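tokens incoming
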């Protein structure tokens, strides 16, 4: 069994989405469906694209939600259909925080890494702008000795 966690940018441009989707599909092709588990927080952008690729590959999905109010507080109406569809097929783990905040996000990222054999980072390689961003999660994974696969196609871009 291989358990792969994901971290990545939420603000991918529209033209970047299909590039990242194909890169994730390609990365996951080497795993047998019955031996693949994906772990994600189901945030918009990279987390959702990864979750969709895991489901498409026939793998098992675990969703680690940072707080009790995460869906109501942080899932915007345009993202809700994908979030709900993926949460419905995942084993959902809710972190013991009432409110979605920086501490809850950091704890959720720690839980992702605890469960993982490796990390996929949809990451432009730049430092985090705040505590607990993609770069910080990559650094924590590397410090813990987890292999990290960085996915950032050459034409990928982040939006505003």
């Amino acid at each position: 069994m291989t358990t792969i966690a994901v971290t990545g940018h939420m603000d991918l441009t529209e033209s970047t989405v299909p590039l990242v989707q194909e890169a994730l599909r390609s990365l996951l092709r080497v795993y047998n469906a019955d031996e693949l588990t994906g772990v994600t927080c189901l945030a918009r952008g990279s987390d959702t694209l990864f979750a969709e690729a895991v489901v498409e590959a026939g793998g098992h999905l675990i969703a680690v939600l940072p707080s009790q109010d995460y869906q109501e507080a942080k899932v915007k109406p345009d993202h809700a259909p994908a979030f709900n569809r993926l949460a419905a097929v995942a084993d959902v783990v809710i972190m013991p925080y009432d409110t979605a905040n920086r501490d809850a996000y950091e704890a959720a990222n720690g839980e992702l890494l605890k469960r993982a054999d490796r990390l996929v980072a949809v990451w432009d390689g730049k430092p985090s702008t705040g505590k607990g961003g993609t770069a910080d999660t990559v650094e924590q994974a590397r410090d813990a000795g987890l292999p990290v696969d960085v996915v950032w196609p050459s034409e990928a871009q982040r939006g505003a």
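note: The first strand starts at residue 2 and ends at 8.
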